[in-house]
Design brief:
Helix 1 packs across helix 2 (44-51). The relative contact order is 0.21. The chain is α/β, with parallel strands linked by helices. The chain has helices at 11-28, 44-51, 104-114, and strands spanning 4-9, 35-40, 59-66, 79-82, 92-100, 120-128, 141-145, 151-152, 168-172. 21% of the residues lie in helices and 31% in strands. The protein binds 1-O-pyrophosphono-5-O-phosphono-alpha-D-ribofuranose. Residues 39-42, 66-68, 74, 97-106, 157 line the site of 1-O-pyrophosphono-5-O-phosphono-alpha-D-ribofuranose.
Length: 173
């Protein structure tokens, strides 16, 4: 495959967005001890940057879901690869995503968590692609709305490549 990588959102713009989101979250969770759940693998870079700006007595957990495999399109079926060991009941749970695309993955996880009766359940996503939505999802804290392009970098991959890029880029070609 021949393709070109083009920068869509720079690392500076990402840094500013992370600071803004951290400010919103810090204000809303003041006096609380939120439990943050990152969705692997895509969210790990965003999670690492975000928590260092939160200044809250938070806990970090990760859950691995998978639906894309090596394909560019979601299969529509979400598999739980690695379960959650965190105790959800009565906790203020904040789920951290890198991207909401069709909404399949996140709506599956939010339904799963809701059944465990958290005190509160919110979603923070670095990016959103509303043009691709199949399942309605409400995002409480959002960094960027993206065009319908295949995005890589800052944790997001294509076939496990490009997660290391500091900018959010799109693949053209
Ligand atoms: C990506 C991304 C989201 C999901 C969004 O994960 O990290 O979790 O797809 O797509 P959806 O809204 O259509 O469900 P992916 O399955 O590619 O795994 P990864 O994070 O390990 O790359």
């Amino acid at each position: 495959m021949t393709y070109q990588l083009k920068i869509l959102i720079t690392s500076d713009e990402i840094r500013n967005a992370v600071a803004r989101l951290a400010g919103e979250i810090r204000k809303d969770y003041e006096g609380k001890q939120p439990l943050l759940i990152g969705i692997l693998k895509g969210s790990f870079v965003f999670m690492a940057d975000l928590i260092r700006r939160l200044d809250l007595p938070l806990e970090v957990y990760f859950v691995a879901l998978s639906s894309y495999g090596a394909a560019k399109e979601t299969s529509g079926k979400v598999r739980v690869v690695q379960g959650l060991r965190a105790l959800i009941r009565g906790r203020d749970v904040l789920v951290i995503e890198d991207i909401v695309d069709t909404g399949t993955s996140i709506s599956f996880l939010l339904d799963y968590l809701r059944k465990k009766k958290p005190a509160s359940l919110r979603l923070c996503s670095l990016t959103d692609k509303p043009s691709r939505r199949r399942v309605p999802v409400s995002i409480d804290y959002l960094g960027f709305t993206l065009p319908d392009k295949f995005i890589v970098g800052y944790g997001l991959d294509w076939n496990e490549k490009f997660r290391y890029l500091p900018n959010l880029c799109f693949l053209e070609g």
